[in-house]
Amino acid sequence: MLAETGTGLFWFLLPVAALSGWFAARRHYGERDGRSSAAGSLAPDYFRGLNYLLDEQPDKAIEVFINLLDVDGETVEMHLAVGNLFRRKGEVDRAIRIHQNLIAKRSLSHEQRCDALRELAMDYMRSGLLDRAESLFRELLEQRTDSEPALRQLVQIYQQEQDWDKAIEVCRRLEGESRESLGKTIAHFLCEKAEQACGENDFARARELVCEALRSDASCVRASLIEGRLAMREDRYEAAISAFQRIASQDPAFLPEAISTLVACYRHCDRVDDARTYLEEISRTHVGITPVLALAALAAEAGDLDAAMRYISEELRRRPSVRGLDRFLQYALATAGVPARDNLNLIKGFTSQLLEGRAAYRCAVCGFTGRSLHWQCPSCKSWNTVKPIQGIEGE
After folding, report:
1. N or C: which terminal CB in the chain sees fewer CB atoms within 10 Å?
2. Model pTM above 0.85
């Protein structure tokens, strides 16, 4: 394994060594007419660096090549590129050394120093030193006009730190810089604050934040869910029903998140028949097995298993669903005679195994899957892209 690591590092650093030698050689040859003396001054350090590589001493090799690669107007881009390569390979400490070496040079132009600061800030972010990264990005905002990249990185930092107030502040500044609407993202930051307020039992503040989130993004499903749950907590079930039903027009893909609590609200209002009517309506107009299963559960609760099985079988004919088949078999077992029960139990065992441990949600951006809903994708960090999986194994 060590040999493989050394070989990989050798092929990674060999171009750096070659370019370092080329830059240094060009300088020496350009300064003197005596070529032999220039070559003689270059060779010892250059080949010493290569020997360090072959001896699997990359730290010493890097030091030699950095010294060879004098910082001037022609080599700054090379330093930046080498540091970037190290960061991409996970060698963040080495990237930091290179970029710090650059910043220490007084010969840099203003633009070059800003480029080096940005790269060093990215190094700090990669290594988890968010306070240092924040400080450098703030410095960049004060020094250059193209502040949009720095603002975007600051948003990422404040999200990781869960400093939602600063994240909202930077997002609004970024909207002005980029002319891009960030209302959807800001709405999620406000929902984060609302959930924090709920955790502190400050429900009045939570309601204010939810209203602000909906003003920022009228299609924010998360805000409607929080609003509905807050209303339920205060026994305002009619208000909760309105909040949950709003989801059908905001993003029907999230309806499964509200169905069970919505039916519970109808029960508290003694409006089970209205719940049935609503479920029948959305079952006709929206794709997904969850409303049909809720409708079947109401029928089964009323003792009408035939109706429950009919609801599901009609849906299965339109859209096959493992969840639907599993529930259908559950009802069928309750009415089956002894000869058929063994076969039904066998099939039910298969469907139960298919559903056990399956992912229920998928990110539309990166494909991340999970069993619970994340408003921000844990993989690609996009907001509002993780939704219930559609298709035969999902909705």
Report:
1. N
2. no
